[in-house]
Amino acid sequence: MSQISIKEPSVVIREKRLGTINAFTGAASEIVEQSAKGQLKDCKRKFSQCLGCNQQQAFCQLAMIRDAVVIDHAPIGCAGEFADFNFTYRVEQARRDLPPALGRYFCTNILEKDTVFGAAKKLEETIRLAYDRVHPNAIFVTTSCASGIIGEDIEAVVDQASKELGIPVVTCTCEGFRSKIWTTGFDAAYHTVLRGIVKPAEKKTNKVNIINFWGSHVFDDIVRRFGYEPQYIIPFSTVEELSHVSEAAASIHICPSLSTYMGAGLNQLHDVPEVLVPPAYGVAGTDRWLRAFGKLVGKEEIAEEIIKEGHEKYVPEIDKLKEKFKGKRAYVTAGAAHGQALITLLGELGMDVVGAAVFHHDPVYDSGDDKLDILGQAVKNYGDVPDYRVCNKQACELVNALNRIKPDLILARHGGMTLWGAKFGIPSLLIGDEQFGIGYKGALNYARRIDDALDSIEFIKNYSKHASNPYTKWWFDQDPGYFQGDGSGKGCAQGRGGF
Ligand code: SF4
C-alpha cells in the first residue's frame, strides 16, 4: 500500500510509487507473475513514435470542474489540449442538459526570455486576470517542462494569490518530464484536489463517489437501489461539491488506472472506504462487484436481488450472442485497467483474446489490495493472452503485432487505434465511454456492438483493398518490440510469450 501524503505539493510519480512500467513484451500470465513477485522491470525504448504528457491527463480531470479555472503555466504549445477539452466539455454539457459554457482555461505563455529572467510575474498577473474575468471558486495552476526547468517558487505565488483572492489557488505539478507514465498526471490532479480543495468531513452523507472521466451515469439506478446517491467526480463537479467528497459513504472505481490515487487518498485521509474488486464488467464480474458493494454498505440482500433480476433480464440474450462469438479471436488496445477489463469481458463472451496492447502496467494499485488484480483474474478465469504488450500508443508496434496476429476483431478505447484494424481488413470497435460496458446491461451492450462489428467484415475487407499503409516490408520483418530493449533490435521479451 502506498502512503498518501498531501504535505508536499508534488505527487510521487507512479514509477516510484507503484513500480509502473510502459514497455513489456510477453504473455499476460508472465506480467501477472512478475508483478506479484515484485520482479517487474521496465524495458526502455530506444525510439518512441509518440508520447503523452502528464499535463494532459491532469488537465482532463481539472478542466471540467464547472466553476474553476485552470492556468497552464507553460509555453503556448503546451496548451494545445485546450481546444480538445473545450470540445469534450461542450459535448458532455449537451449530454447532461447543462447550459452551454466555455471551459475557463488560461496560459501564461512562457517565452524564451522568461526562461532566463523568470516567469513568476507572468503567473501572478495571469492569476489576477483570470480572477477578474470569470470570478472562479478555485484556480488550478498546472506546471510544464518549461516552468519546471526555470525552477521558480510557484508555491509562494499561489499561496499569496490564495490569501489575496480568498479562494483556493493550488498548484498541480505535472511537468511532462516528471514521469514517463502519463497517468501520473491523473494522480497529480487528484493530489491537487485532495491537498487544496477537499475539507475534513463534518458529517457522513449517503453519497457514493464515482471516480470517473465523463462517462454515462449508469450507476444512478444501482447506487440508488442501495439507498445511496451517486456523486460523479471530478469532471462536472463544482468546487463546493468536491470540498465535501470526504463525507461520502464509499468510493467506486470505474477504472483503477484512473482513480487509484484518489480512492486511496480519500480512504487514508478521510476514512472513505473503496470498493476493492475489479470494475463491474461481464456477468460474473458484475455479480462479484455487486456483492462487494453490498457487503461494504451492509446491504447484501439488495445485491442478491439485483443479481437475480440482472440474470433474468440480460443473460439469455447474452448467451445467444455468445454462441455466435465462439472461436473468434480478439485483440484489445486500451489503457491498462480498462484494457484488462475488456479482456475479461471478451473472455466471458466466449472469445479468444489473442493479443493486447495496453498503455502502461501498474503491478499494484495504491490500495495495495491484490483483489484489484484484474489481469490476474482474467488469466485465471479465461486463459492466457499470449501476446500481451505494454505499449504506450506506439502505432508502429501495434501495426506490426496486428499484421502477425490477424485477429477477427479489435476492441479499442481510444481514437487513432482502430483505423489500423480497418487498414488490415479487421472489424474494429471503438468505445470511448468506459461506463458503456458496466453491469449486466453493459455486457449486453458490448455483445450487441461486437455482433454488429463482426457483421461489417465484407465492408472492412473491401475498404482494406483501397487503404494505404505507411510501413515498409522491412518494418514488418522486424519483431514488433524492435524498439524496446538494449538497442540490439531483438526487442525485449521479458517472458517467453510474444513473438
Ligand atoms: S509540459 Fe512538457 S511534455 Fe507536456 S506538452 Fe509541455 S513541453 Fe510537452
Structural account:
With 499 residues, the chain is an alpha/beta fold. Among the domains are: 14-21 and 48-196, Nitrogenase molybdenum iron protein domain (Rossmann fold, 3-Layer(aba) Sandwich), CATH 3.40.50.1980; 319-477, Rossmann fold, CATH 3.40.50.1980. The chain is built from 21 helices and 13 strands. The protein has helices spanning 14-17, 28-36, 54-62, 81-95, 112-117, 120-134, 145-150, 154-165, 184-196, 219-225, 239-243, 256-270, 283-297, 300-325, 336-348, 374-382, 395-405, 418-423, 439-455, 457-465, 473-477; strands at residues 23-26, 68-73, 105-107, 138-143, 169-172, 207-211, 229-233, 250-253, 329-334, 352-358, 387-391, 409-412, 428-430. The protein has a six-stranded mixed beta sheet with strand order 1-11-10-9-12-13, sandwiched between helices. A four-stranded parallel beta sheet has the order 3-2-4-5, with helices on both faces. Helix 9 (184-196) packs parallel to helix 12 and helix 15 runs parallel beside helix 16. It is globular and about 65 Å long. The relative contact order is 0.14. The model has no long low-confidence stretch (mean pLDDT 94).
